[in-house]
Amino acid sequence: MLIIFSVYIYTVIRFQRYITRSTHHHLTSLITYNSTMGSLTIPKLLVVDFTNDNLTPGTTTWSSTCNDIRVALENHGCFIALYNGVSTKLQESVFQAADELFDLPTETKIKNIVSKPYHGYVGQMPIVPLHEGLGIDYATDHEGAQSFTNLIETSMLFSRAVKELENMVIKMIFESYGVGKYSDSHMDSTTYLLRYLKYRAPEMNETTMAFPSHTDKSFLTILHQNQVSGLEIRARNEEWISVEYPPSSFVVMAGDACKAWSNDRVLSPNHKVTMDKHGKETRYTIALFSFLSKKVEVPDELVDYEHPLKFKAFDHVDLLNYYVTENGRKSQNILQDFCGV
Ligand SMILES: O=C(O)CCC(=O)C(=O)O
Ligand SMILES: [Fe+2]
């Protein structure tokens, strides 16, 4: 209860600070993701202000924020990050790039073949007619971004800027679990997949289900959307929360690899995308997924009498490979089935 209360207070404080600085546009989009609690309207998800100059390692703000992030990841599996590492111009460019990318003929888009599952082009699928996705693997390197020549600069700049946020969050999670000394080697072995996602508005009487419920197979996922919302996440208490966040902010979400690494402490939340039945606008999401190029394994420090080891060490890409098998797709608890002890 105390924890919930402090998260609540913290969120209110952050939210109020945010309001005082926000433009009207941001404010309107923020208010919509609030829920009514008593007579107060507050966001359900933790909002972390990464633009705060006091957020530097070693300070009390840093350590209390690390703690807040850990609690948020354990209960919701995600939080919202206010982050100014991606300039307004770069945000515009990346959505412009998405627009151009999806306008390419299907014959061109299907050339986006990547050998790893769920890394390349998906689209024209009868069960998810609204959705299309395109991926750029090794997105922070030149070779990776080169596969779509005209998108090199934008994709790479965006990925590198968001990677900074990812790295900061990794440091904070590791530190909060008392294993900060491993964060550098973890980050050194991380690769990034950038995916451009498009959801067209549903036509009359068409399904609004734009992306079915799933957990991410990444370590962390960082999402950035245009002004069209639709993401819903299922919290630890099984409540579905509509995530509406200002276009300038980011959703940081834990994937199954983070859940495994934390020995089942972090929630890798189920989430889905539902389009507004009456909406007319196309939704774009730019998603940066982090993957480990070394084994995902629970640090010894996170195993004790009360928390016996839950998952065996595994190669991250093998989790993806398992996910595309029949058993993997059917599994209701993929980590348990894939690497459960
Ligand atoms: O579009 C979104 O907000 C979510 C996309 C997503 O969940 C995914 O690509 O794994
Ligand atoms: Fe996802």
From TrEMBL:
Answer whether the UniProt record assigns the keyword Plastid to this protein.
Answer: no
**Residues in Fe2OG dioxygenase domain copies:** 189-292
A Gene Ontology molecular function term for this protein is: 2-oxoglutarate-dependent dioxygenase activity
Gene3D superfamilies in UniProt: B-lactam Antibiotic, Isopenicillin N Synthase, Chain
* Database matches in InterPro entries: DIOX_N (IPR026992), IPNS-like_FE2OG_OXY (IPR044861), IPNS-like_sf (IPR027443), Iron_ascorbate_oxido_reductase (IPR050231), Oxoglu/Fe-dep_dioxygenase_dom (IPR005123)
Print the keywords alphabetically.
Iron, Metal-binding, Oxidoreductase
List, alphabetically, the PROSITE patterns matched.
Answer: FE2OG_OXY (PS51471)
Q: Which family does it belong to?
A: Belongs to the iron/ascorbate-dependent oxidoreductase family.
Q: What does this protein do?
A: Probable 2-oxoglutarate-dependent dioxygenase that may be involved in glucosinolates biosynthesis. May play a role in the production of aliphatic glucosinolates.
The entry's protein name is Fe2OG dioxygenase domain-containing protein
Recall the taxonomic lineage recorded for the source organism: Eukaryota, Viridiplantae, Streptophyta, Embryophyta, Tracheophyta
